[in-house]
Amino acid sequence: MDKEAIRMSGICKGRVAIVTGAGRGIGREYALELARQGAAVVVNDLGGTADGTGADRTAAQMVVDQIIRAGGTAVANGSDVADAAGAKALIDQAVDEFGRLDILVNNAGILRDQTIISMTEENWDAVIRVHLRGTFLPTKFAAQYWRAAVKATGQKVQGRLINTTSASGIYGNFGQGNYGAAKAGIASFTVIAAMELGRYGVTANAIAPVALTRLTESILPEAYKAGLGPHHIAPLVAWLASEDSATVTGRVFDVGGGRIGVAEGWRLGPSASTEGNWDAAELGAVVPDLVARAAPNADSTGSTLAG
Known about the structure:
CATH class of the largest domain: Alpha Beta
CATH architecture of the largest domain: 3-Layer(aba) Sandwich
Order of helices and strands: HEHEHEHEHEHHEHHEEH
Oligomer: single chain
Distance between the termini: 38 Å
Number of domains: 2
Helix content: 25-40%
Shape: globular
Radius of gyration: 21 Å
Structural class: alpha/beta
């Protein structure tokens, strides 16, 4: 990213963005692209390891320094977004520094993979905390800010909420019961946020990114690693963050390499009805037929036997 790139872009010009987990990987690319598109960015990162231990603000500051060298505007934030006080301080910092908040990208996350049989309560709780609480709390305080802005002016805002889900959450992946459950929750949370926040002019969408980062290098199949850089995900996030995306909300996007797809969520498939209550014994002639006629579950890449 350089000054020429900053000058030539601008679909987010004048807007203020927060990106959590932005010190490395995909979040870093989100922050850089939003800055290149003209946004002032609060770069949040606790600076922990991939499993969530430790803290170091250096990573966030390095991204801020890169943005500023390129002629953009950014500040660092080291708050724990899964802590209520930290999440509120993050939202407050954006408003205090730049006078407003337009975009919240919830991207902070950790991995502690184990099979369900071996999963410790600590590893379950840590992953659920960072992903689900770390999405809910910043969203809550951002939504309160946007609601207050609407009440103060009588005009809807152009707010943008962009959450990070995962193929593990929307399709499933072996050995990631904690992570997949958290990410599935984020996908559902996003759909509900779109329902609740639309009245204020806020859209809510989620990204299921497929990219090679420190969190995925050990689990991403070798066949999928080539051409899956985190920079491939950032343009869609920047577009969703812009005012151009006002008609798109409540959707989950599966993005990787040069592909952008819309993930289609749970929907009612084949069904059967009876008068009154079913007799359990007769369901043996009903349920297997329903399952046989239903679309198969997707595999971990989102594909089905039917393609």
